[in-house]
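Lab meeting prep.
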Amino acid sequence: MASFKGTTIVAVRKDGKVAIAGDGQVTYGNTVLKGNAHKIRHLFGGKIVTGFAGTTADAFTLFELFEVKLKQFNGDLTRAAVELAKQWRTDKQLRQLEAMLLATDGDKILLLNGAGDVVEPEHDVMGIGSGGNFALSAALAYLDADNGLSAKEIAQKSVKIASTLCIYTDDQIIVEELTKRK
């Protein structure tokens, strides 16, 4: 049986802002089912932005669980992410979820996965999904060029580049941005 594949999500931090961008393509095997999916979500009253790669139902389950952890830890992104990762890793049923999340509070960028990882990028960029490495590479180049583009512009352009390389990524891009909390 064919499985749902790929997507591209990238997070970029620049000048006190973090933008997360994602494409809109949903595929099943070698068929495009939809090109306008929204893979970027606001959580915790809009104070957290997340993007997902993987199966949709699994991602929505993770969004709900992450929202609970954010409420439990009063919006502390790191604490909520670590607690979700622990639960995800140790719960027999949750371990079966096939999705990854990128999350930001406008300051930190975190990657969460089912292996129990909570990873903050070494640089100001993180990418996930089948086109994630393409978008990551493009975003690093844009940041290095220091061409005056904003975090939002870099994220959008990086996913656009990934869409020209990854067959599981399209150019129907959604971008959300948060400013660093004070």
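Slide two material, second protein:
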Amino acid sequence: MIEDNLRDWLAADLTEIVGTFMPFGRFGPAKFPPHGVPLFDLPVEYLSWFAARGWPRGRLGELLRSVHQLKVDGCDEIFDKFRRARGGRTALRG
């Protein structure tokens, strides 16, 4: 029962992470039109900056914190299926 609830919670968070793009800053839509970089493609160094300085408030901060934790725990490959569906990793350098 608890495992089912945890699985449902994680699946819901992953679904939201996959559909969310960075709405501001260095990886936002101004520099990566039209939507910004998908949260799962943000560099761990960028996420670590937020971890040190403070996460954005609200749901965005929660999702960024989750992506950061997955990446530092070595679970970045969990996003590979979604990257393939989008045509690969977002190119972060010109």
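Talking points for slide two:
The mean pLDDT is 93.
Helices lie at 2-18, 44-53, 58-72, 80-85.
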